[in-house]
Specification:
- There is one protein chain.
- It contains 10 helices and 7 strands.
- Helix 5 links the parallel strand 2 and strand 3.
- Helix 7 crosses helix 9.
- The longest helix has 17 residues.
- It is globular, with a radius of gyration of 18 Å.
Length: 266
């Protein structure tokens, strides 16, 4: 199946709500807050700066950017109408933040109009990431800064023991819900090819031990496997229940590697 994040609206309202909530839960995680705070600290916000977020989703990171940049303007572009609706509803307290529906490969922004472009967990879900990097180069001012933060999905795991069935769900999520699991390993070369100067590249491990942020990796993959006739609903319910049991008892062990690249337009 094609990565549903390439066409979120086609995946349906339930998918949008599940992942909007999951994105909020993920961003509330202490490690994710540290990752975002670290890259925002490398952006010199002023009252006049204009920041574009590409692939804003339901706005979990957009709200952090807006708080750091205020009163500087933030615009979150997102191709999904459903995510834009969710993002607007969740950001009513931010006067300097707006959301518009637009594809990251064709932004409705003037050449050289942005001080910063941020792509947070976006490029692993697009077929040709370089197209979005070229578009970021176009809209950035000379000396403007690009931030790419994404997961190395090739290293993601829910395994607590050999042949853990929850890890089978994680592997299925990576193969069915992610376009490029190895994007982070290649992002510096991509950016350099487009013409950016890479100034920083950081990796940070994340352990998910006691919350529901990776639950969609189980619930949505199980839903898809039931729809495909691979498993029955009783097994799907049992796997979701097992994730919840581990999360509630403090025995869950999810693992991810997050990568952050910062690059400047010469």
């Amino acid at each position: 199946m094609a990565d549903p994040f390439q066409n979120v609206d086609a995946a349906g309202a339930d998918f949008i709500k599940v992942f909007a909530d999951a994105m909020d839960a993920r961003q509330a995680d202490t490690t994710m807050e540290e990752i975002v705070a670290a890259y925002l600290a490398q952006l010199s916000f002023t009252p006049d700066t204009h920041t574009i977020e590409v692939g804003a989703g339901a706005g979990a990171v957009s709200r952090r950017i807006a708080a750091a940049a205020a009163p500087g303007r933030i615009i979150g572009y997102e191709p999904s109408a459903g995510f834009v609706e969710e993002a607007r509803a969740r950001a009513t307290d931010f006067e300097n933040l707006v959301f518009e529906q637009a594809d990251g490969a064709l932004l409705p922004a003037k050449d050289g109009s942005a001080d910063f472009v941020i792509m947070h967990t976006v490029l692993t879900h697009v077929p040709d990431p370089e197209v979005l990097l070229v578009e970021a180069m176009r809209v950035l001012k000379k000396g403007g800064r690009l931030v790419v933060c994404d997961a190395d999905f090739s290293k993601a795991s829910l395994a607590s023991f050999p042949n853990d069935p929850l890890d089978a769900c994680a592997k299925t999520f990576t193969s069915e819900f992610v376009t490029d699991a190895f994007l982070i390993s290649r992002i510096r070369d991509m950016a350099t090819t487009v013409g950016f100067t890479v100034t920083d590249f950081q990796l940070k491990n994340r352990a998910i031990l006691d919350n529901m942020q990776m639950l969609p990796w189980v619930s949505e993959t199980c839903r898809q496997m039931v729809a495909n006739g691979n498993i029955g609903q009783p097994l799907a319910d049992a796997l979701v229940g097992e994730y919840e049991r581990r999360a509630n008892s403090g025995t869950l062990f999810g693992f991810q590697v997050m990568g952050t690249m910062i690059a400047d337009k010469p």
